[in-house]
Amino acid sequence: MHVPELIRRKRDGEKLSADELRALIKGYTDGDIPDYQMAAFAMAVYFQSMDSDELGAWTDAMLRSGEVLDLSDIRGVKVDKHSTGGVGDKVSLILAPLAVAAGLKVPMISGRGLGHTGGTLDKLESIPGFDVNQPVGEFRRLVDDIGLGLIGQTGEIAPADKKLYALRDVTATVECIPLIASSIMSKKLAEGIDALVLDVKVGSGAFMKDVDNARKLGETMIGIGQAMGTEVRALITDMDQPLGLAVGNTLEVVESIATLRGEGPEDLTEITVELVCEMLDAADKVDDRDYTKKMLYELLQDGSALHVFREIIEAQGGNPEVCDDPTIMGVADHVVTFGAPKAGVIEHMNAEQVGLAALELGAGRHTKEDDIDPAVGLVFRKKRGETVEKDEPILEIHHNGKGLKDCVARLEKAIRIGDGPADDKPLIIERLG
C-alpha cells in the first residue's frame, strides 16, 4: 500500500476499495501511518466525501479496530442514544435511567466536552467519586445487573476512532459528514447494541447549522446502521437556544436530578421522553405512543427513574446522596445576575455564544488538556419568547472569579431583545427512519 497514492486518489475524487480503506485504518491504528498522512487523507475526504460503499467499509474498519462487545448473553433489548452535541444538553443523564426504568438495557459509552458543547463524562464526574473509567468486564456486569453502564471510550473499543477524532479536532476536519457519521457509528455499534436512537441537533449551538445538513447526517448514520443490520432512528431537534435552564457541569447534574423527580424544565423533559419513546419503539415495545409517553412521565413522577440513577451512581463509585442533596457536588463562590438591557421580548438566543460564555468561566475546554471548573456556569430565568422588563434578571452567572467580563460580553451578543415576535422553532423538527 502506497499511502501518498491513496491520498492523491481521494483528493482527486476517486473511489477507494474496501481493502484499501481497511489497510489505511489498520496502518493508522498500529502506528505505521503517521498523523500527517492521515490528516491529509481526512482533508481529502472533507472536500471529496465518500460514497455509501466507501463509508460502510471505513466505518466497519474503525469498528473492528478494537473489541466489539457481544452482549447477546445479557437478557433484554440493548438500546443506546447518541446526541451530536449542544448547549445545556444533559439528556443522557435523565434518558438512560428512564429507559432502564421502562424496561430497556442501556450500554452507554459517552465523550467529553470540547469548545462550546458539554460532555456527558464531565457532567458525571461532577458527582463525587463517580468513575467513568470502567473496564469492559465491569461495564458488562453493570449492564447485566442494573441495566445501565455509563463509561468513557476505552482503549479496547474503536481505538482508530479515538486517534482519528483527536486528529480531526486539530486539523479543521471535524465538520465533515462522512467522518462525523463513521466516528459516531463505529463507537456505538461496538457497544453490542440492538438499536440506536440519534438526537441530531441543528442550529446556532450545533455542528449542523441548517436542517438540510442535519437531515443528511441523520440519513447517513441510518444508512450505516442498515448496512450493518442495526435498527437506527433519528430525531432532528432544535439547538438555537440552550436545552433546559442550566449550562455547566454541576448545574446540569442538579437540573437532571430535578427532572428525574418530575420537576424539570418542560423542553428538557419533553425531548427526553420523546427520545426514550423512540428507543422503546425501536425495541418493538410500543403499541400506542401516547400511552407510552404517559407511562414515561409517570416513571419520572414516581421516582422510578431517579432510583435507577441512584443505583448507577453507587455502583460506579459515586456518592448517591447527591440525589437528595445536590449541594454535595459543590457550588461556585459567586452568583451574579445578568439583567435585560431594555424591556421587550427575548426574540433570539444564540446557543453557541451562550456556550462560549460558560466556557469563559471555566465550564468547558479550549483544548483537550484543559481542566474544567465543574461548579461554574449559567442558570436561565427567562428564555426565548418570554417578556422582560429593563434590568430584570434573564439568568444567573455562577463563577469563581474567572472570566466574568468576557462571559458578560458573550451574553450581550447572544441575547436579542425586541418588540417580538420571537423566533418560532419547534423543539422536535423532524423524525427520520
Automatic annotation (TrEMBL):
<comment type="subunit">
    <text>Homodimer.</text>
</comment>
<dbReference type="GO" id="GO:0004645">
    <property type="term" value="F:1,4-alpha-oligoglucan phosphorylase activity"/>
</dbReference>
<dbReference type="InterPro" id="IPR036566">
    <property type="entry name" value="PYNP-like_C_sf"/>
</dbReference>
<dbReference type="Pfam" id="PF02885">
    <property type="entry name" value="Glycos_trans_3N"/>
</dbReference>
<dbReference type="Pfam" id="PF00591">
    <property type="entry name" value="Glycos_transf_3"/>
</dbReference>
<dbReference type="GO" id="GO:0006213">
    <property type="term" value="P:pyrimidine nucleoside metabolic process"/>
</dbReference>
<dbReference type="InterPro" id="IPR036320">
    <property type="entry name" value="Glycosyl_Trfase_fam3_N_dom_sf"/>
</dbReference>
<protein>
    <submittedName>
        <fullName>Thymidine phosphorylase</fullName>
        <ecNumber>2.4.2.4</ecNumber>
    </submittedName>
</protein>
<dbReference type="InterPro" id="IPR013102">
    <property type="entry name" value="PYNP_C"/>
</dbReference>
<comment type="similarity">
    <text>Belongs to the thymidine/pyrimidine-nucleoside phosphorylase family.</text>
</comment>
<dbReference type="Pfam" id="PF07831">
    <property type="entry name" value="PYNP_C"/>
</dbReference>
<dbReference type="InterPro" id="IPR000053">
    <property type="entry name" value="Thymidine/pyrmidine_PPase"/>
</dbReference>
<dbReference type="InterPro" id="IPR018090">
    <property type="entry name" value="Pyrmidine_PPas_bac/euk"/>
</dbReference>
<keyword id="KW-0328">Glycosyltransferase</keyword>
<dbReference type="InterPro" id="IPR035902">
    <property type="entry name" value="Nuc_phospho_transferase"/>
</dbReference>
<feature type="domain" description="Pyrimidine nucleoside phosphorylase C-terminal">
    <location>
        <begin position="345"/>
        <end position="418"/>
    </location>
</feature>
<dbReference type="GO" id="GO:0005829">
    <property type="term" value="C:cytosol"/>
</dbReference>
<dbReference type="InterPro" id="IPR000312">
    <property type="entry name" value="Glycosyl_Trfase_fam3"/>
</dbReference>
<dbReference type="GO" id="GO:0006206">
    <property type="term" value="P:pyrimidine nucleobase metabolic process"/>
</dbReference>
<dbReference type="InterPro" id="IPR017872">
    <property type="entry name" value="Pyrmidine_PPase_CS"/>
</dbReference>
<dbReference type="GO" id="GO:0009032">
    <property type="term" value="F:thymidine phosphorylase activity"/>
</dbReference>
<dbReference type="InterPro" id="IPR017459">
    <property type="entry name" value="Glycosyl_Trfase_fam3_N_dom"/>
</dbReference>
<keyword id="KW-0808">Transferase</keyword>
